[in-house]
């Protein structure tokens, strides 16, 4: 039998041990290829569409995060498999295999696994790339066909294959060269040595509890200004506490449970608790690593999900009208506005009552507020036109005395429409047609006539709107015109969340050179939703990749000790335990080792999101709960699959 045949036979015989690593590595290859294919497709890379910058940045960062993560994951996995094979390698050495032959066989095994994973990942990626491309284009709301180049992107295939082949080869060489045949021979008898009871230190136990409790307390009590500065120190302390939790605290707790005789001697608890004590200590590093990785994934997922949902919610809360704009053109502005409305309705948009079409005069004004003059462009509307709209819209009218002027400001968050704030003893000078008119500036009133977002409210990016007495506005109109008169339009849309395409089509009817102050919740929400969708698109793949990796690390640990467990459970079977009781012991131990990291990681996430909520002054616990449950569901499915595979390996000798 050649070395290649021997390596192939070894991989085939140990396929249950390798399947988890194979799936994780192939999935990372698939995701890298899909992200690279989407990012480099001409239709996507050209940009110029909504969300282009967010998509390009997310895909660029995600590709290299996946590559770096794959390196460390492969390094750990390859090292774990090497430990699992050391006894077999020792037997080969005892039978006369040279160190060169042992290393060559290991390299061939790694080459078979790596090449198969890369081919499988690229094959699935090529099959799914068109589907993913269609989903991406739909998410970006682009009316272009799915890029043909995404079906089989040869450049992305070669780039992905070279990166992962190089990565896998480097790690295989690094781990294989470290094998020492003499050391391997000594390890053949190592499993025969009895294990000593796990030792704990009272100092380390107290330190572990203090690190976790202190980290949680600081995270819970941070002020918004302290969150950024304390994030890394608190994370480091909690990581130390997590490691000590599994090496010290968990062992002490299990020993305490063992001291309770009524619990310890009930049914199979004696075996379960005793074995878990060793399992916790032996697997402490892996459990701590999985917990920290899971906490990062859960927290990141909660942050991304909450930021997206909060952003969409904020958009809705900051708009009191769906659409508003000013269109210049005294002759045909109203006709153009009417055609805009008809286009919206033709596109399936349902408009509520209270549509505003208010004529305005364009003028330069100088407002003297407490002796400090402020000069700017303003739209002047009459009191009667405003009140006519207010009656139809069911909002508060305005009463203006002749010779007075009132500035109409958008409703800010927490304000109420119709709220008047008087400003006595101030004046406003209106310049139009080479003439100047001075009125008394009586103050400003909040109105929901205009759809102002939080940005143009705080930064005052809209043109000032001033209401004056109907008689005064006729006098000002008679002074002449500087151009720019037109119509102010605003409306409310019932189905605004699905009106983006209709609004885009209708807006093409509005001459851009005559359009001012165009503000729309429809386009703003769609843009925010696009950015959110792009981020979630990348985050879901990343979360699933990290989930597979963390679960695979636990899977490896069980199959690393499979040979010892076969001997252990065979002995227990001879002592009289039934296969049903052995299944229960295995299920309990695997459940604790699989779900304990999730429990601790969820606890970490809760306090981390508490700090995040403090920083943004918004409750996000519900979003974190959704992320935790979303992580738990595939974790449970993976546990059931791993448990089934493990029991299938034990059954021939222990059933």
The gist of it:
The chain is of the alpha+beta class and 655 residues long. The chain has 21 helices and nine strands.
What report would you give on this structure?
With about 650 residues, the chain is of the alpha+beta class. About 65% of the residues lie in helices and about 10% in strands. A 6-stranded mixed beta barrel has the order 2-3-7-4-6-5. The longest helix has about 45 residues, at about 50-95. The protein starts with a helix and ends with a helix.
How would a textbook summarize the main sheet?
6 strands, mixed, barrel
Helix content range: 55-70%
Extract low-pLDDT stretches.
454-459
SS-based structural class?
A: alpha+beta
Question: CA-to-CA gap between the ends?
Answer: 34 Å
What series of H and E elements makes up the topology? HHHHHHHHHHHHEHEEHEEEHEHEHEHHHH
Strand content range? 5-15%
Number of discrete helical segments: 21
Number of beta-strand segments? 9
């Amino acid at each position: 039998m050649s070395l290649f045949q021997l390596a192939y036979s070894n991989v085939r015989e140990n396929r249950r041990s390798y399947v988890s690593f194979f799936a994780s590595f192939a999935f990372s290859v698939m995701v890298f290829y899909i992200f690279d294919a989407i990012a480099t497709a001409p239709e996507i890379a050209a940009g110029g569409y909504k969300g282009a910058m967010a998509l390009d940045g997310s895909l660029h960062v995600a590709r290299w995060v996946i590559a770096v993560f794959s390196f460390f994951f492969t390094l750990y996995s390859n090292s774990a498999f090497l430990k699992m094979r050391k006894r077999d390698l020792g037997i080969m050495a005892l039978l006369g295999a040279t160190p060169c032959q042992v290393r060559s066989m290991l390299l061939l095994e790694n080459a078979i696994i790596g090449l198969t994973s890369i081919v499988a990942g690229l094959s699935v990626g090529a099959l799914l790339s068109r589907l993913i491309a269609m989903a991406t284009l739909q998410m970006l709301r682009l009316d272009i066909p799915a890029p043909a180049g995404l079906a089989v992107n040869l450049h992305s295939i070669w780039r992905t294959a070279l990166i992962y082949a190089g990565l896998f080869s480097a790690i295989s060489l690094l781990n294989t060269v470290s094998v020492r045949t003499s050391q391997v021979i000594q390890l053949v008898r190592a499993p025969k040595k009895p294990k000593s009871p796990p030792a704990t230190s009272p100092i380390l136990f107290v330190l572990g509890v203090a690190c976790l409790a202190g980290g949680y307390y600081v995270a819970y009590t941070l002020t918004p200004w302290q969150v950024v500065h304390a994030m890394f120190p608190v994370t480091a302390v909690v990581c130390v506490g997590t490691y000590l939790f599994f090496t010290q605290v968990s062992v002490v707790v299990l020993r305490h449970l063992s001291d309770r005789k009524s619990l310890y001697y009930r049914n199979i608890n004696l075996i379960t608790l005793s074995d878990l004590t060793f399992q916790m200590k032996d697997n402490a590093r892996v459990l701590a690593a999985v917990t920290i990785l899971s906490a990062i994934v859960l927290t990141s997922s909660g942050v991304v999900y909450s930021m997206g949902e909060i952003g969409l919610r904020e958009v809705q809360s900051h708009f009191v009208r769906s659409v508003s704009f000013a269109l210049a053109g005294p002759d045909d502005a109203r006709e153009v506005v009417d055609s805009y409305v008809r286009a919206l309705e033709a596109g399936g948009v349902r408009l509520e009552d209270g549509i505003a079409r208010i004529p305005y005069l364009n003028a330069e004004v100088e407002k003297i507020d407490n002796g400090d003059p402020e000069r700017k462009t303003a739209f002047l509307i009459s009191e009667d036109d405003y009140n006519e709209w207010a009656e139809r819209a069911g909002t508060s009218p305005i009463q203006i005395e002749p010779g007075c002027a009132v500035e109409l400001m958008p409703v800010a968050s927490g304000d109420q429409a119709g709220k008047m704030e008087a400003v006595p003893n101030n004046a406003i000078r209106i310049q139009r047609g080479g003439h100047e008119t001075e009125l008394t500036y009586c103050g400003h009133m909040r109105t929901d006539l205009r759809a102002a977002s939080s940005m143009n409210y705080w930064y005052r990016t809209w043109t000032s709107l001033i209401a004056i007495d109907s008689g005064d506005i006729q006098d000002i109109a008679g002074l002449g015109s500087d151009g720019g008169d037109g119509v102010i339009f605003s409306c409310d849309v019932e189905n605004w969340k699905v009106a983006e395409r209709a609004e885009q089509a209708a807006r093409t009817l509005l001459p851009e050179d005559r359009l001012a102050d165009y503000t729309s919740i429809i386009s703003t929400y769609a843009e925010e939703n696009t950015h959110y969708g792009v981020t979630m698109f990348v985050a879901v793949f990343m979360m699933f990749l990290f989930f597979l990796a963390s679960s695979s690390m636990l899977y490896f640990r069980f199959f690393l000790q499979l040979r010892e467990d076969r001997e252990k459970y065979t002995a227990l079977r001879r002592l009289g335990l039934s296969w049903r009781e052995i299944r229960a012991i295995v299920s309990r131990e695997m459940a604790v080792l699989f779900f304990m990291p999730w429990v601790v990681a969820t606890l970490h996430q809760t306090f981390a999101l508490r700090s995040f909520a403090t920083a943004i002054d918004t409750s996000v616990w519900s979003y974190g709960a959704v992320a935790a449950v979303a992580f738990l569901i595939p974790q449970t499915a993976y546990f059931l699959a791993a448990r089934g595979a493990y029991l299938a390996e034990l059954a021939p000798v222990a059933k």
